[in-house]
Write the structure tokens for this entry.
Amino acid sequence: MLFASFDFLLFIIPVLLLTWALAHVPTVRVLVLIAASYFFYMAGARDPLPPPWYYVGLLFVSTVLDYVCSHRIAANRAAFEGEDPQAKARARRARNAWLAVSLIGNLGLLAYFKYTNFLLGAFSDIAGALGIEAQALHLDLLLPIGISFYTFQTLSYTIDVWRRRLTPEPSLRRFSLFVVFFPQLVAGPIVRAHEFLPQLHRPPNLSAANMSQGMYRIFCGVIKKVVLGDWIAAQFTDAVFAAPDTYTSLEILLALYAFTLQLYADFSGYSDIAIGVALLLGYQMPENFDRPYQAKNLGEFWRRWHMTLSTWLRDYVFFPLGGSRGSPGRAYFNLWLTMFLVGMWHGASWNFVIYSNVHALAMLFNRWNRGRARGPVTVARSAPWVVFLLLLAGAVYGLGTSVLQLDGGTSLGLAGFAAAMFLLVAWLPETNTRLNAAVHIALTFHFTVLSRVFFRADDLGTSRDMIGGLLRLDTHGVRPGLLTPWLWAALIGGLAYHMITPKRWVEIQGYALFRRLPGVVIGLLFAALALGVHLLLANGPRPNIYFSF
Amino acid sequence: MNSPPDHSDGLLDGEERRYRVDLRGAAEAAGPYPRGTFRQVVSAMATLVMAISATYAVPALHWMRPWQPGDDYVPFWNLIGRELLGEGGKVAEKQEEVAAVEAVARAEVAAEETAEPFVDKVVREPVVEGERLPAYAGNVEDDEPVALQLENVETLDSFYGALAASELGYAGAITRVLHYGDSAIGNDGIPGAIRMKMQARFGDAGHGFHLLGQPNASYRHQGVRFDEKSAWNHCFIIFGCREKDGHYGLGGTTFESTGGAEIKLSTATKGAMGRKASRFELWYAGMPKGGNIRVTLDDQEPITVATAAEQLEDRWLELKAEDGEHTLAVRAAGGGKVRAYGVVLEREVPGVVWDEMSQIGALTRRMLNFDAEHLHSQLRRRDPNLVVFMFGGNDMNTQGTMQKYREEYTAVIRLFRAAKQPMACLVMAPLDHGEREGSRIITRPIVTKIVEAQRAVAKAEGCAFFDTYEAMGGDGSMGRWVRSNPALGSGDLSHLTHHGHKVVGGLLYRALVAGYVDYRKRMVGTPVILPKPAAPEPAPADPAVNPSVNPSAPGSATPESTVPAAAAANGPAATAAAAAAAAVGESGDSPAAADLQ
């Protein structure tokens, strides 16, 4: 079910009324929310296609698997913490075995549905590159909606129990609700067990302030998702990404800017709606975005973008590997692997391999650049820079010619550009002036814009066409009628809102105005918004982009 | 909840946070909530529900209703079922149609992505007098279903005859098609899709005609690489900017420069189409005080062509090379203003050439801006076996009567067909055009009227007719195509997406081939249609402008003069000259353009 749809309206009003009425009967309330969540997961109007019935089974299996594993892990805790070394060793083995069952079960399902076909195809591609003929097997797999999200969610629970930071949830009902809670089931935010499960032990936090805040978040979220997300996609970006070789360089560049805005608006809008609905139900969910395009460097960007995913991988991959402790080489490896997994979580294709590595290597550079000692330029200090620049240019040239299949001249230009950007970012100090901050923000923003080619393109061929089109640098401008004045207004307004407007205008002052409105006025505002959505998206609401991850 | 993150740190800069949470203990039940907790939200909900209910209670507000019976979209349809509303059968049928089309779209795009270069046919000796059409051997494609047949298909016999010769692989059997239309065929979407299929089956005789520049950003051809080093000034027929002489060239756009403008056209390096060429033909104008055009094929010595003439006239420069990858550069070389129209890239092998001649934004009647003699000269030179017209999209937004529209369309067809006889013609109805009615997308009422008008004109003028609107699914089809996955219709409800082009191209191809198969079965034993003979030797060439050019060795570019006026009607020049010469084409008088408006 999609949030910005008539279905959801028909669904959420009875669910809210019922759960409010059952606030004093926690057992029944939890059961109602579980049933509602499964209904939400399975019901579909048209797009996306409704999931097959076995998806419910997968969700149920994931729930039961982690519930059982966590209890078996916890059952060995006393022995593990005891004095008897043999009992301790046995308990350690048992705990590790049950953790492995959970990891293999959850990650195995995720890997099977999400990565099998890519790995089979990659094997064939690599064999082909080595001159070995290998026919790739292709399995007819449909990715279960939300599997990337609920898998990480349940894993966080099992791992925390194993780490002894969390006792297992005694109630299968409450644990089931933690797994399938519908506001965040299909596209996050990824909720940690230690943040959400305690809320299920307490009465739902239903207050007038939370009601207002919830409605406000939903209102803002729908505007972001529909106007800046769905509408921009339908009007512009989808057409360009479908056939980039039929668009000019400037049109492709504008499509990248538009997609950058669309992606943020789509996902953060969805997160806003999810957080708002959860508030109406009496629960707090973590924030997922913090004006990411205002980041001054890539490390800050990933701390502001899809925060629940990036912090999940930080807490369950980066820190367990040792984090920044140990040798610099080890720290860089941990950093690269974590960021590589952040990228690959999004999708299984060569595009995402490139996207992951581009961001991972850029993070390594960011870490090194921010920590290095700056000093006067000398010949001795310059030598390694020259060597590195040549290596960088060579690598980019190789990427251009062999992977992107650009001609030599264009690849050389791309390599030169990469080297120039590297030098610029490396040279530019981080001072506290506004101009300096603006330059850093602009550079980071454009890095994310350009890397989005690999994020959005359907396949490597499309990426090649887009990059080739960009680097063609033709002078044909934008064809009349491609971007209407309303579309320009949405693009410019959306980016300006994100970049320039202070957060307090929306989060404090805007909210303060909203919460003072009488309920009837809010109802009329929602009715007007619903009408606007209805007219703007006459070809139906679109699934959230992250549904496909 | 977690404390807000520290803005000064990157994602992986901080230290790990540790916590311990104990989940033992039963859930607490809620106590009474303070008065007013739900007041604002419940009154907001009630208001919203009443507002939506009002749209159902008040008939005038029907356009605001979020859902109406009969919509494609049904809330919770998979769990509650359309059957409860009695609409299961009809909507399921439509969904199946769309699902079938979606599958076709995906298959077409997948096939395009993995397409290998075409395999050339084995060339037979040229057709001799009295040679008979053999029995039709059949083709694996013949079993594929045909969504919609052509109407008046018998009018395409001359085209099918040429196609038969191409399929049988007779030397010189090139079947040429000119496909004119508005933005529906822009970006070479539909024509490119048809070209791919036609050439896969009947042979790849080259890309065809390409304008000398891009009159608009929607002019992009598949199967050819185009690079505009320096832009030419262009004049597009719909603006009537050549009102004085009506010379817009075969493609409907003229390109002029006093010097420096340059384009490069190259064979494609990927995909199945356009990988080779062996004949290039520059289409340009001779005119008073005309300057020079410099033409360079690959790294050959450039050829400079003088365009000065006593009066405005059509001219052509033909270059031949070994069949393979080539690049042709055309540059305005100063000495006065030059005017040119485009370049033809072909191969001298049996096959099909399908020229995309999109006129973005054009009303049908804009084709009457052509000077008749000039257009006829251009058409006779190109010598098409079929001319396809796909207009109507922009006509839907104009004022006027359907009778007047029929007259205009008739005039356009007659203008084109007067160039040579016979010239088979095919009218493709416009795409379905949608408009929004509440949450629904319905067909604009004018669409069916335009389609019927075009059907009547096609029948009266002896053209075949393909009802594109019906082939898409008829009433409401654009709405279904827009909502399909992948999307086949674009958000403006008037054009198709990349996938949609493939589908419509495939639909027309199937219809054309179905008619062809009938033709072959019907015409067994009848004489094979002879390809046009080579043009006779031209008169001695004018003194070369660039006397340094030597007769080329075999296998390299051979500059050839254009044919003299008498031979122009017989097709492309075929003779070689010792050096580049100023070509003499048909004289181009400039009578007033026929004005039927």
In short: Chain B touches chain A through 82 residues (CB under 8 Å).
